[in-house]
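Action item from last meeting closed. Structure (98 res):
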């Protein structure tokens, strides 16, 4: 990830990098697990590392599909979009209705 490290420091593991990238994304908005995994795969992370990073995020309460679904509905309602649009957005983000 391009971090400058002092001599003697070990490089960050891919699991830690996947966790950090996912946490950064979640800091901007809620993501469903599948959408987050897809985004991490597109960034070049390996699936086993993604799986472990996502499990940690859930363990720490940082990622929740239910919270992501509610955020989609809230965003749609605030922008005047109807329930049909909200359901479409859920499908695009691989989420189910809350």
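Sequence:
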């Amino acid at each position: 990830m391009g971090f400058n490290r002092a001599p003697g420091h070990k490089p960050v593991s891919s699991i830690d990098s996947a966790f950090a990238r996912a946490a950064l994304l979640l800091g901007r908005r809620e993501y469903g697990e599948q959408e987050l995994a897809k985004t991490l795969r597109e960034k070049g992370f390996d699936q086993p590392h993604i799986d472990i990073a996502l499990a940690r995020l859930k363990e720490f309460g940082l990622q929740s599909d239910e919270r992501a679904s509610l955020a989609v509905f809230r965003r749609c309602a605030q922008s005047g979009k109807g329930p049909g649009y909200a359901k479409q957005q859920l499908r695009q983000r691989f989420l189910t209705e809350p």
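Note appended to the action item: The first helix runs from residue 14 to 28.
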